[in-house]
Amino acid sequence: MMARMAILGAASEAGTYRRGCIMGPDALRTAGLVQSLADLGHTIAEDRNLVPDQVEIDDAAHAPAHSVGAVAGWVRAVRRAFGAALGRGNVPVLLGGDHSIAAGTLAAIMDVSPGTHIVWLDAHPDFNTIETTVSGNLHGIPVAIAAGLAGADVIYGAPITPLDASAITMIGIRSVDPDERALLKAHGVTVHDMRDVDEFGMGHLIRGAVARARAAGARIHVSLDVDFLDPDVAPAVGTTVPGGATVREAHLAMELLHESGLVASMDIVELNPFLDERGRTATLMVDLAASLFGRTIMDRPTQSW
Known about the structure:
Blueprint: E1 4-10, H1 24-30, H2 33-39, E2 43-49, H3 68-87, E3 91-96, H4 102-112, E4 117-121, H5 142-146, H6 152-156, E5 168-173, H7 178-187, E6 190-193, H8 194-200, H9 202-215, E7 220-225, H10 247-260, E8 263-269, H11 280-292
């Protein structure tokens, strides 16, 4: 099915300690993202970079969290633009930037399409709160605050419809903080670490996520972090964790999600071109996005769900 797509860049690196994510959106465009989607027959209704709101927040009140106001400014701008794109019936694709910006996409989705299921492809669950973060890097909090946990009022500066944690499926997880682990269990998030991927296979886990969304009559938002992949194949990320998904596992995930017919939006985050090798990570992320939105080697028969 062809879609009208909104490509929104959010060049934030406020949520991390490494410089370079600011170049992520333009690197994805340079690697051919927009053209790849257009070549698949999709209409590019919008293609622009966002500008963060100006938000002043005293970091000292939230130590060790840093750049709280800068993160809040990006999140609020993303929430507004992503929500507007959804409201116009477009399929928004957010280009990051560090993963803190996903707090904006998740809030926007709950504003416009509450009940949407989230497929979170990442080495980290990003379920710390502004109070439990050890590093102070706020790219580790977006899912928790979108679920209404501590820090939501600070970052959003306005009420949100909290994300239902039971509607989240995380796959590829392999680095979890102790407090974060307790929060995930307490809130009923479905978490598949890499042992699950090894033991059951990527296809089984993705089909499970799709089945849960379909049973709920829900659409799916896909949040794809570069570090979902093994750093041997995707080195351009500041939070590398060995033992990630292979190229074929990642493509299978994208292909099965596309075949579900349920994908309504996407994030591509944490690309740090400064750490890349001749653009190979950016190119791989573009290829994965193309798989999510319909690129196949051979035509497949329509699935009978």
